[in-house]
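C-alpha cells for FMN dependent NADH:quinone oxidoreductase. Go.
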Amino acid sequence: MHVDSSPRVERSHTRRLSAEFVESWRDSHPETNIVYRDIGRNPIPHVTEEWIGAAFTPTNQRTSAQLDTLALSDRLVDELLEADVYVMGIPMYNFGVSSGFKAYIDQIVRIGRTFLFEPQDPGAIYKPLLTGKTLYVITASGDSGYEPGGVNARINHLAPYLHTVFQFIGVTDISVISVGSDEFGGERLQDSLARARKAIAEISAR
C-alpha cells in the first residue's frame, strides 16, 4: 500500500521518493499488487461527533446513516488489513505529522477493527489486530538532525508518534527514511537525498 500525504506535488520530496521506492520494490518484486491513496491532494475528513457516535455503536446496532458516516473509514481500514507492506510519504510539519495525516490516523485507529478494548483483561486491555505488517516511512524536513542522536532529535515528534500509533494497532516492523535540509538546499539537501535513495535501494533489494 502506497500513501502520499504531502499537499505539495512537483516540489515534494516525499512524493518523489515514495514513488521511487515503489518502483524499485516493483522491480525486485514484480508480482506485487500496489494500492495507492493520495491523501495530500484528496484530504481525509476529520472525525466528527456523528463519526464518534457511529464508531462506538455496536456493528449490528448501527443505523444506515451511521454506516454511511463510517463508509470511508471502513474502506481505509480494509486497505490496511489487505496489505502486507505500507510505504508512506509523510513530511514533517512543525515537528510532527500534518493535520491531513492525523485525520487519516484518526480514521484508521478503530475500536473493533484495528484494535480491541477489553477492560476485563488487566494484562492486556488493548489488543492490536494488525499482524505481520511492515511500514516504511519516508519523511522530509526543512532542517536536519532529527535522527536519534541528532541535534534536533528531542523535537522530532513525527517518528516517535508514528511508532506509538502504529505499534498500538499491531504494526511493529517500522523503518523511517529521512530527508533533511530542504530549507537549506544545495549540497546539504543533495547529500541527504542521496542517502535516502541509497537506503531505498538497499531495502528494495532485500
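Helices lie at 13-28, 49-55, 64-69, 71-82, 99-108, 158-168, 186-205.
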